[in-house]
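Batch job 17 of 40 flagged for manual review because the log was empty.
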Amino acid sequence: MPELTRRHALAAAAAVAATAAVTPQAFAHDHHSPETFDEVYKGRRIQGRPASGGGHHHGAGYAVFIDGVELHVMQNADGSWISVVSHYDPVPTPKAAARAAVDELQGAGLVPFPAN
Protein backbone atom coordinates (compact mmCIF):
# COMPACT_ATOMS: atom_id res chain seq x y z
CA MET A 1 0.00 0.00 0.00
CA PRO A 2 1.44 3.43 -0.91
CA GLU A 3 2.57 5.67 1.90
CA LEU A 4 0.32 8.61 2.74
CA THR A 5 2.35 11.73 2.18
CA ARG A 6 1.61 15.28 3.19
CA ARG A 7 1.07 16.14 -0.49
CA HIS A 8 -1.53 13.37 -0.90
CA ALA A 9 -3.31 14.41 2.30
CA LEU A 10 -3.46 18.07 1.24
CA ALA A 11 -4.68 17.14 -2.24
CA ALA A 12 -7.45 14.97 -0.77
CA ALA A 13 -8.48 17.72 1.66
CA ALA A 14 -8.60 20.27 -1.18
CA ALA A 15 -10.78 17.94 -3.26
CA VAL A 16 -13.22 17.46 -0.37
CA ALA A 17 -13.36 21.22 0.29
CA ALA A 18 -14.00 21.97 -3.40
CA THR A 19 -16.80 19.43 -3.55
CA ALA A 20 -18.40 20.76 -0.36
CA ALA A 21 -18.32 24.31 -1.74
CA VAL A 22 -20.61 23.44 -4.66
CA THR A 23 -23.12 21.12 -3.03
CA PRO A 24 -26.83 21.75 -3.52
CA GLN A 25 -27.20 22.76 0.14
CA ALA A 26 -25.68 26.09 -0.83
CA PHE A 27 -28.98 26.92 -2.53
CA ALA A 28 -31.38 25.14 -0.14
CA HIS A 29 -34.18 24.40 -2.59
CA ASP A 30 -37.53 25.57 -1.32
CA HIS A 31 -40.79 24.46 -2.83
CA HIS A 32 -42.64 27.79 -2.95
CA SER A 33 -42.68 30.37 -5.70
CA PRO A 34 -40.02 33.09 -5.45
CA GLU A 35 -41.10 36.51 -4.29
CA THR A 36 -42.25 39.15 -6.75
CA PHE A 37 -39.78 42.01 -7.19
CA ASP A 38 -39.65 45.32 -9.05
CA GLU A 39 -36.61 47.53 -8.58
CA VAL A 40 -34.04 49.64 -10.35
CA TYR A 41 -30.61 48.02 -10.30
CA LYS A 42 -27.66 49.94 -11.77
CA GLY A 43 -30.07 52.11 -13.75
CA ARG A 44 -32.00 49.15 -15.20
CA ARG A 45 -35.52 48.18 -14.18
CA ILE A 46 -35.64 44.54 -13.17
CA GLN A 47 -38.89 42.74 -12.43
CA GLY A 48 -39.87 39.24 -11.48
CA ARG A 49 -43.27 37.65 -10.97
CA PRO A 50 -45.13 34.39 -11.40
CA ALA A 51 -45.65 33.71 -15.11
CA SER A 52 -49.20 33.71 -16.37
CA GLY A 53 -50.65 32.08 -19.43
CA GLY A 54 -48.80 29.87 -21.89
CA GLY A 55 -45.32 30.33 -23.14
CA HIS A 56 -42.06 28.54 -22.69
CA HIS A 57 -41.04 28.84 -19.04
CA HIS A 58 -38.45 26.57 -17.46
CA GLY A 59 -38.35 28.90 -14.48
CA ALA A 60 -41.03 26.99 -12.58
CA GLY A 61 -43.71 29.37 -13.87
CA TYR A 62 -41.70 32.50 -13.07
CA ALA A 63 -40.90 35.39 -15.44
CA VAL A 64 -38.04 37.90 -15.14
CA PHE A 65 -37.75 41.15 -17.12
CA ILE A 66 -34.99 43.71 -17.69
CA ASP A 67 -36.34 47.04 -18.95
CA GLY A 68 -39.52 45.25 -20.04
CA VAL A 69 -37.72 42.56 -22.08
CA GLU A 70 -38.10 39.02 -20.78
CA LEU A 71 -34.91 37.41 -19.49
CA HIS A 72 -35.11 33.67 -20.04
CA VAL A 73 -34.49 32.04 -16.64
CA MET A 74 -34.45 28.44 -15.53
CA GLN A 75 -34.48 26.82 -12.12
CA ASN A 76 -32.02 23.98 -11.66
CA ALA A 77 -32.83 20.77 -9.80
CA ASP A 78 -30.87 22.00 -6.76
CA GLY A 79 -33.04 25.13 -6.51
CA SER A 80 -30.47 27.52 -7.99
CA TRP A 81 -31.35 29.79 -10.93
CA ILE A 82 -29.57 30.58 -14.19
CA SER A 83 -30.37 32.84 -17.11
CA VAL A 84 -29.55 32.85 -20.78
CA VAL A 85 -27.10 35.71 -20.07
CA SER A 86 -25.27 34.17 -17.10
CA HIS A 87 -25.85 30.50 -17.83
CA TYR A 88 -22.74 29.15 -16.07
CA ASP A 89 -23.12 31.16 -12.88
CA PRO A 90 -26.00 29.74 -10.79
CA VAL A 91 -27.51 32.04 -8.18
CA PRO A 92 -30.02 31.44 -5.37
CA THR A 93 -32.98 33.54 -6.62
CA PRO A 94 -34.48 34.95 -9.83
CA LYS A 95 -33.72 38.46 -8.52
CA ALA A 96 -30.05 37.51 -8.23
CA ALA A 97 -30.22 36.11 -11.81
CA ALA A 98 -31.61 39.44 -13.04
CA ARG A 99 -28.88 41.37 -11.23
CA ALA A 100 -26.18 39.05 -12.61
CA ALA A 101 -27.55 39.57 -16.12
CA VAL A 102 -27.47 43.37 -15.69
CA ASP A 103 -23.87 43.10 -14.52
CA GLU A 104 -22.97 40.92 -17.50
CA LEU A 105 -24.75 43.14 -20.04
CA GLN A 106 -22.66 46.16 -18.93
CA GLY A 107 -25.22 48.62 -20.27
CA ALA A 108 -26.08 46.72 -23.46
CA GLY A 109 -29.72 46.05 -24.22
CA LEU A 110 -31.23 42.63 -23.66
CA VAL A 111 -32.22 40.99 -26.93
CA PRO A 112 -35.40 38.88 -26.68
CA PHE A 113 -34.69 35.14 -26.54
CA PRO A 114 -36.78 33.17 -29.06
CA ALA A 115 -38.40 30.35 -27.12
CA ASN A 116 -39.49 27.40 -29.24
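Reviewer: the log was empty due to a logging misconfiguration, but the result itself is present. Strands lie at 37-41, 44-50, 62-66, 69-71, 73-75, 81-83. Unflagging and moving on to job 18.
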